């Protein structure tokens, strides 16, 4: 079998305060968004900034760090992997999809006065333990719909 790689590196700012919840087994889960921007020239030669929004999910100890130190505006360095979820919308019956980044490493880059993260500049680095368990391929809707459509259990945590 050929080797494959699924690795994402992001450096950006948190779009809104993280959503924190616990699984039935007591494991913490954090969902939040990260904005990354780049610039490119348009047809007239003027520079245009383009922002991409990324949905991130952190589990266990990393989720606790997100809860304690990350808020809207925090600058983060993230390493993780891309995951895709799908589910059937309860209201419309349509198939829904969501692409997320499963956070493996998180470094807080904001100082206290910047994103207000409560950590010093350079921040805290936390690496989650990896595992070979597959990520549950269900729910991935808008934040409210996602929270209502999928309860995350300990079996859903991919390690």
Description:
The protein has one domain: OB fold (Dihydrolipoamide Acetyltransferase, E2P) (Beta Barrel), CATH 2.40.50. It has a 5-stranded mixed barrel with strand order 1-3-4-6-5. The chain has 2 helices and 7 strands, in the order E-E-E-E-H-E-E-E-H. The chain is mainly β and 159 residues long. The longest helix has 10 residues, at 60-69. Strand 3 and strand 4 (47-59) form a beta hairpin.
Can you summarize this structure?
The chain has 159 residues and is mainly β.
Supply the key terms:
159 residues; OB fold (Dihydrolipoamide Acetyltransferase, E2P); five-stranded mixed beta barrel; mainly beta; 2 helices
In spatial order, strands of the major sheet run: 1-3-4-6-5
CATH architecture: Beta Barrel
Percent range for β-strand residues: 35-45%
Low-confidence stretches: 115-149
CATH fold title: OB fold (Dihydrolipoamide Acetyltransferase, E2P)
Protein structure class: mainly beta
Averaged pLDDT: 77
Q: What is the CATH first-level class name?
A: Mainly Beta
SSE blueprint and pairings:
Elements (H helix, E strand, L loop, with lengths): L7 E7 L4 E4 L5 E14 L5 E13 H10 L5 E14 L6 E14 L16 E3 L15 H7 L10
Parallel strand pairs: 4-6
Antiparallel strand pairs: 1-3, 1-5, 2-3, 3-4, 5-6, 6-7
